[in-house]
Amino acid sequence: MRPEAQVSRILFLAATVVGVLLTLAILWFMVRLGLPLFSTHSLRLLLTQDWAPDRGLYGIFPFICGSGAVVSLSLLLAFPLSLGNAVLIHLLAPRHLARILYQMVKMMTGVPTVIYGFVGIFLLVPLVREWFSRGSGMSVLSAGILLALLIAPTMILVFLESFAAVSTSHLRALEALGGTRRQKLVHVILPGARRGIITGFLLASGRAVGDTMIALMVAGNAVATPESILDPVRTLTAHIALVMAADFDSMEFKTIFACGITLYLWTAILTLSLRFLHFKATKTSMQVGHEQSF
Amino acid sequence: MSRVFDYLLYLFAWGSGLILVGAFAVFMGFLLSQGLPALDSSLLFGRTGMVDALLLQRVVIDGLLPALVGTLLLIFLALAAAVPFGLGAGIYLAEYAGKSSKALFSLVFDLLAGVPSIVIGLFGFSLTVFLHKRFTFITPCLLISALALALLILPYLIRSTQTALEELPATLRLTAAALGADQATTIRLVLLPQAAAGILSGIVLAIGRAAEDTAVIMLTGVVVSAGIPRSLFNSFEALPFYIYNAASQFSNQQELQRGFGAALILLILCGLLFTLAWLLRKKVTARLLYHH
Amino acid sequence: MANIIEIENLSFYYGQKRILDNISAAFGKSAIVALTGPSGSGKSTFLMTINRLWEEFAGARMSGQVSLFIDQEKLDIYARDISLSWLRRKVGMVFQSPNPLPMSIYRNLALPLRMAGWKNKEIIGHKVESVLKQAYLWSEVKGRLRDDARTLSGGQQQRLCIARAMILEPAILLLDEPTSSLDEKAAREIEALIFSLKEQCTLLMVSHDQAQIKRVADEVMEIVGGRMSGL
User: Fold this and answer.
1) Mean pLDDT score, C205-225
2) Predicted ipTM of the assembly
3) Helix-then-strand count for chain B, H and E
C-alpha cells in the first residue's frame, strides 16, 4: 500500500477510535463522579429510596417512576396514533392526500422539542387544568400528550418504511385471490412489518426516555411518586436539569450522576434490544456470492 | 362481521390521521397567532438601533439578536468539530473495517446515538469541572457547549456517511479498480463524490439537532443574558434556552410575547437551514460530478 | 512476432469449483485475439487474471504464472513488487455492459488521469478531446460534455468506456463481450473502433459472434470447460 494511502487509513481509524473513547468516557465520568454517593448509599437504596434531602434521603426512585409514567403514557398514546397514520398513508388515503400527510409528518420531526414544551405550557396545560379542574395542569398527562406528539412522527416514518419493504409478491398473490385492503393489511402487511413495528416502537421509546425539555416544562417537577396521571412528576432528565443549579459538592448534586447512569443504561438496553432484533434479521437473510462474475 | 371490522379499521386510521393533523394544526396555529405579532425589528434588536447592534457598537439587552447569534455560532462550531470525526469514522466503518470490528464499532455508535442529550450535557459539565481544576480559565462556555453538541451529533454524521457509502452500487468500486485506482483514490475521487448528497443530508440532520437542543447547552454554559460572545471562553445566549427561560420566568405580557416570537424564529431558522442545506446539496453534487 | 502476454499453467478456483484448468498460452503484440467458447467456460475469468481484477472478489484463488513483456522486459504480474495500479493502467478493461460512472461525460474520461495523479487541467482537457476523437465520439458529444454520461445511447456509452480505458494508453486492452448488449448498428461501430485500436495496443476480446470474430480477429482461441485450444 502506498504510504499516503496508509496515512488516510490511519486517520480514519483514529477518528473512529476517538468516537468510541468518547462514548465510553461519558459512562466513565459519571461513574467516577457519582462514586462518593455509593460509599454511603447502596445501589438498592439509591434506586428504591425516596428523595428527601432534608431527611438525608437521596433515592431517585420517584424520578424513575416519573420517567416511567410519562414515557409509558406517551407510548400508549403514540403507538396506536402512529399505526393508524401509517396505515392511512400507506394504504387508505388517496395518493396526493397521503403525500401531503407524509410531508407533514416529516416536517414534524424537525420541530424543536423546546417549542413543544413552550406551546404546551400556554395551550395544553391550561386546558388540562380546566378539563379536570384539579392541580395546576402540569402533570403526567400533559407531558405524555406532548411527548406522544414528539415521538409519533419518528414511529410513523419507521412504520412506513417497513410497510414499504413488505414483499410485493405476497401482496400480488393476495390481490389475485381477490383480497380486500383490510385482508392485505391484516394478513400480509402487518405480519411482514412486525420487526419494523417493534423497531419504531423501541426507537421512539428511546427518544421519549431521553427527552428533557417537555417533562421539565410541563410535567410539574414534583418529587413525589405519582399516583394518578393528573399528578405532577419529575423525570430523571428533568431532575438533572433542576439540580444542576445547586451546590457542586452537595450530596444532592451527586445524585444527578446516578440519574445519568440510569438514563445511560436505560437507553443502552433499548439500543441493545434493537441490535438483537436486527442481528437475528440479518443472520437469516445474509449471503454472499459472486458466482455470476466467474 | 368482516364488514364491521372494515369500518372499524377505516374509523381507526382516519381518526388517527384527523387527530394528528388536528393537533399539529392547533399547535402551529397557536404558535403563529401568538408569535407573528411579535415579529418586528425590536424583537431582534430590542431598544438598540439595528445598525449599532449589528456593528457590535452597543450591547443588545432585551432583543433576540445575541441568542440568534449564539445559536448560529453553536451550530457552526459544533459542525466544525464533529464533521471531520463523523466523516472519518463513517468512511472507516464503510470502507476499511473488518466484519467484527465494524459490528463492534457500530454498536458503540448506536449506543452513543441513544444517549439522552441531558447526559451528554452532564458529561460536558463534568469535563469542565475536571478541566477547571487544572486550567482555571476554563468554565462553562461557548466552546464547551459546542464540543458537547458535537458529541451529540457525531453518531448521526457517522451513520449517514457510512450508509451513503455502503449503499453505492458495487460496480462503482469494480470500475474504479479496473481503471487502476487503489482504495484511497477510489474513495476520494469516486465514492465520496457519489455519496456527497447522502452525507450532506446527514449534516442537515445534524444541524437540526444542534440548533434545537436545549438540554446540552443548559448544563454547559448558556445563560439568560450575556450579549454576543466575544471569545470561545465566554458564556453565551441561545434561542432554545431563551424560549425555555421565557416560559418559566416571564414577568409581563411583553416578555411572554417575545418568547413566542423566539419560538417562531427558531422554527423559521430550522426551516431556513434545512432549505439552505438542501440547495447546497444539489450544488455540491453538481460540482463534484458534472462540472469540469 | 514478439509475444506480449505469456501464460503458464494457469488454474483458477472459485470456492470449490475449478473455473480454469491448467491453461498455457501466449499472445503476440498488436493483434486482436478473439476468445470464444460456450458461456460459463471461464472466458471472463481468464481476462480478469490478466489485470488481476478477480482479486476484488472474495472466495477466488488461482495458481500459475502470467507475464507481460513491457519495454523488452518480462514481468511476472503476480510478483510482489508489481503495483496493482500500474498493472491496471497498462492493462485496460471494457465490460460486457457499458459502465459509465454516474457523472458527466467529461469527468468519466478525466477520472483515470486524475486517479493516476494528473493535475494540469489543460493537458487533461486535450487528452479528453483527442481520445474522444479517436473513439469517433467527439462530434456527437462535444456540445454536451457536462451531461450525465448515462444519457448517451448504449453504443455511445460503450465507445465512451473504450475511450476511458484508452486514455491511459494501455499496452493491452481486455474486452469482455463488448457488443453483446448493443444492437447491430452500434455493434458495427464498436467493431470499427476496436479494429482501429490495433495500431496502439494488443486487444483480447471475448466474443460469441462468429461473424464478428471473422471480421476483426487475427487469432482465435477457444476455451471449453476451463481448457484452452487454439483454432
Assistant:
1) 91
2) 0.90
3) 13, 0
